[in-house]
From TrEMBL, chain A:
It is found in: Cytoplasm; Mitochondrion; Nucleus. Belongs to the pseudouridine synthase Pus10 family. This is tRNA pseudouridine synthase Pus10. One of its GO terms (biological process) is tRNA pseudouridine synthesis. Residues 292-523 form the Pus10-like C-terminal domain. The keyword Mitochondrion applies. Keywords: Coiled coil, Cytoplasm, Isomerase, Metal-binding, Mitochondrion, Nucleus, tRNA processing, Zinc. Coiled coil: none annotated. Its main location: cytoplasm.
TrEMBL record, chain B:
One of its GO terms (cellular component) is dendrite. This is Protein Abitram. SUPFAM superfamilies: Single hybrid motif. It comes from Myotis myotis. Coiled coil: none annotated. Belongs to the ABITRAM family. Pfam families: GCV_H (PF01597). Keywords: Cell projection, Nucleus. GO terms for biological process: dendrite morphogenesis; regulation of actin filament polymerization; regulation of filopodium assembly. GO terms for molecular function: actin filament binding; actin monomer binding. It comes from the Eukaryota.
Length: 532, 216
């Protein structure tokens, strides 16, 4: 059923005669249910023409300055390569131009002076199919999607102009038209396109989906339509560093809200003029939001950095903890890149034993995201069998929020260590026993010299909760310690030129040094343990 | 307990190779400092000392023309320098007692007032090679000025030796250090150009003792 009534006739006539497309006319007449918009353009055009016939059967169809069909086709064909399939009923047809962007050639109806073709060809099945083809070709795995579309800012200017025009016309009938009485372009666009996407791709549209299909439209021909706004509201268009153009949608909207009708009308034609060509597609991309994989790692090598060790482009030590784990994940998830983080870290020459250290890896733009727990287990086995320097456990998918738990551990939780200590003076078993009895020993650590070049100079108060000694020989003993997070163990042993006080050396009145250090446990109960 | 020289030298070479990697402290991920033996050490030999492992020893002899007032600069692989007295310095000779140490080097400047903030150590007093760090007053009336010997920002001076000057004499190479200086990143290699290596310093000391024996 045609949605317009007698009451809409004047407005519809006015808009139609000035070059506005049927769907935009519906919008300005407040048609706020979906069904009419979904009909085909051809059908809508014909119905509208019928609706606008006078009693005498004449078409009130004044199209000021329409370029004759012949010339227009000529103009459109200039500079456009590509196959030309003239469809039989003269509907818009698609051709691919250089660079892969899509242009529509429209032969019978004019390009709408308000939506610039968005609610003409660009919301119809043929275009959506093209987008879906690209989505399918991109190789992403998805069960729903969110569709985001971006229109050129000058559309807001044209919309504003059309609104002023219609408001004036309705004023003649003593009717008012607020901005909110008009259906938004984007809204109508989504009403039409969402079901088409769902049908074509077989998945629902979900605003919360991690998989995003985005289309960006541009209209180079009318780019300067917005520029007059800068003269009138200069403070809306302050240049910012990362913006290419000052004329963003937000800025244009802001200026339109400020400008008064008179000033606007002086600078911009009401109704807007008809453009020569429709919009072009600037960008058609799809991307998947990041997924997170967590686990715990053990490090058995004393020669492995946590992150790649590269100085001036030269790799100093082969591989790294993060690469040994992440490389496999990158492949399986078909992700673009990763971000590795962990609950604290250890030096190159320190092993991580016990339950291991919690870590989380953010996989950026993964193409594959659905894995059964069995598949994750197999992935874990694969990582473990490919290296004896590290081992991974409790590998699992987690949410972004869960990362907070891990970082919590870094600041708050305790860690236990095992150190092999050397003393210059000969010691007996009795000499180290007193260390076992020390509980919650407070120490002050100045920023160790070995990290002072990149950390601020400060004094850190830390607590050694407990210690347990194991005599080895006259010059060696093992020390188990449980400490507060953020304690520099090596410096607690050798004293760092007396800048960590007290230290093992000062407590025992010897010169002490640390030969080996192992992390025995990181006391964070995240990620949840899985029974393997 | 004496350490076999060979074992110590071998470990030092291994360490030096790895430490060379720490040339650029601003590189991404250049965090790990290699410090320890990579294999379990035999009970008989101790690992190289803390100073051996992390630092290169540089020397300046007869600082400011004063005979035997030798300084030893410990340069960490991350470019930080610890200023210490060389073994041959008069203050460290037997029989000398330190009365007091002062960081007030002029009426307007006390090294104790040095304050650095942030990762980039803003606010630090800038030192040239000849900048005085502290004055040491001995019981025999002698007064010695210790100089920086390297250009850079002063990080800290050792307050422990203020309270207990004997530490300076007991452990001049570690707990008895004088100051910590951070040279400019661009100058980290060039600062050692005017300094002597361990070997060169040892030669200087030998020459001195030959000269004194010759004259005696």
């Amino acid at each position: 059923m045609f949605p317009l009534t007698e009451g809409n006739k004047h407005v519809a006539q006015l808009l139609f005669s000035t070059g506005t497309c049927p769907r935009c006319i519906f919008r300005f007449c407040g048609v706020d249910f979906h069904a009419p918009y979904k009909l085909s353009y051809e059908e809508l055009f014909n119905e509208l023409q019928k609706f606008l016939k006078t009693e005498k059967g004449e078409l009130i169809l004044e199209v000021p300055n329409p370029p004759p069909k012949k010339i227009r086709l000529h103009e459109l064909e200039d500079g456009i390569d590509g196959t030309d399939n003239q469809s039989q009923n003269g509907e818009g047809r698609v051709s691919i131009i250089e660079g892969g962007s899509i242009a529509f050639k429209s032969s019978s109806p004019n390009v709408c002076n308000v939506c610039l073709g968005i609610l003409q060809e660009f919301c119809e099945k043929e275009f959506i199919k093209k987008v879906c083809q690209k989505v399918e070709a991109s190789g992403f795995e998805f069960t729903n999607l969110v569709f985001s579309v971006s229109f050129p800012p000058q559309l807001s200017v044209r919309e504003h102009a059309a609104w002023l025009l219609v408001k004036q016309e309705m004023g003649k009938q003593s009717l008012s038209l607020g901005r909110n009485d008009i259906v938004q372009l984007k809204e109508a666009y989504k009403w039409i396109t969402h079901p088409l996407f769902s049908e074509e791709l077989g998945v629902p549209i979900d605003g919360k989906s991690l998989f995003e299909v985005s289309v960006v439209f541009a209209h180079p021909e009318t780019v300067e339509d917005c520029h007059f706004l800068r003269a009138i509201c200069p403070d809306c268009f302050k240049p910012a560093k990362n913006k290419q153009s000052v004329f963003t949608r937000m800025a244009v909207m802001k200026a339109l809200n400020k400008i008064n009708e008179e000033d606007f009308r002086k600078q911009f034609p009401c109704p807007p003029n008809s453009p020569k060509a429709v919009c072009s597609v600037l960008e058609m991309e799809c991307a998947h939001g990041a997924v997170f994989v967590a686990g715990r790692y053990n490090k058995y090598s004393r020669n492995l950095p946590q992150t790649p060790w590269i100085i001036d482009g030269e790799r100093k030590l082969e591989s790294s903890v993060e690469e040994l784990i992440s490389d496999h994940l990158l492949t399986v998830f078909k992700a673009e890149s990763f971000n590795f983080s962990s609950s604290g870290r250890e030096d190159v020459d320190v092993r991580t034993l016990g339950n291991g250290r919690p870590f989380a890896i953010e996989l950026v733009n993964p193409h594959r995201v659905h894995f059964t727990s069995q598949e994750i287990k197999e992935l874990q086995q694969k990582i473990n069998s490919s290296s004896n320097k590290i081992q991974v456990r409790d590998l699992q998918l987690v949410t972004r929020e869960a990362i907070g738990h891990m970082k919590e551990g870094e600041e708050e939780k305790t860690k236990t260590y095992s150190a092999l200590i050397w003393t210059n003076k000969a010691i007996r078993k009795e000499d180290i026993e007193f260390l076992n009895d020390m509980k919650d020993l407070k120490i002050d650590q100045k920023t160790p010299l070995r990290v002072l070049h990149r950390r601020p100079l400060a004094v850190r108060n830390r607590i050694i909760h407990s210690m347990e000694t194991c005599y080895v020989d006259e010059h060696h003993f093992r020390l188990q310690l449980k400490t507060q997070a953020g304690t520099y163990i090596k410096e607690f042993v050798h004293g760092d030129f007396g800048r960590t006080k007290p230290n093992i050396g000062s407590l025992m009145n010897v010169t002490a040094d640390i030969l080996e250090l192992d992390v025995e446990s990181v006391d964070v109960d995240w990620p949840p343990a899985l029974d393997d | 307990m004496r350490t076999p020289q060979a074992a110590r030298r071998k470990d030092r070479l291994l360490r030096a190779n790895m430490e060379e990697a720490l040339g650029s402290p601003r590189a991404e991920g250049a965090a790990p400092e290699v410090a320890m033996a990579t294999e379990p050490v035999a009970v008989e030999s101790a690992a190289p000392s803390l100073v051996d492992r992390y630092f290169t020893r540089w020397y300046k002899a007869d600082v400011k023309g004063k005979p035997c007032e030798d300084h030893c600069i410990l340069q960490h692989s991350n470019r930080i320098c610890v200023i210490t007295l060389a073994e041959s310095h008069p203050v460290l000779q037997s029989g000398k007692t330190i009365k007091s140490i002062s960081y007030q080097i002029s009426t307007n400047c006390s090294r104790l007032q040095n304050k650095v903030s942030g990762k980039f150590k803003r606010g630090a007093q800038f030192l040239t090679e000849l900048a005085p760090l502290c004055k040491i007053y001995c019981s025999d009336g002698e007064e010695y000025t210790i100089s920086s010997c390297v250009r850079g920002r002063l990080m800290e001076v050792n307050e422990n030796i203020l309270h207990k000057p004997s530490i300076l004499q007991e452990k001049p190479a570690t707990e008895g250090y004088i100051a910590v200086v951070l040279p400019k990143f661009e100058e980290s290699k060039s600062i050692t150009e005017g300094l002597l290596t361990q070997k060169q310093y040892e030669e200087v000391v030998v020459k001195r003792s030959n000269a004194t024996t010759a004259t005696s």
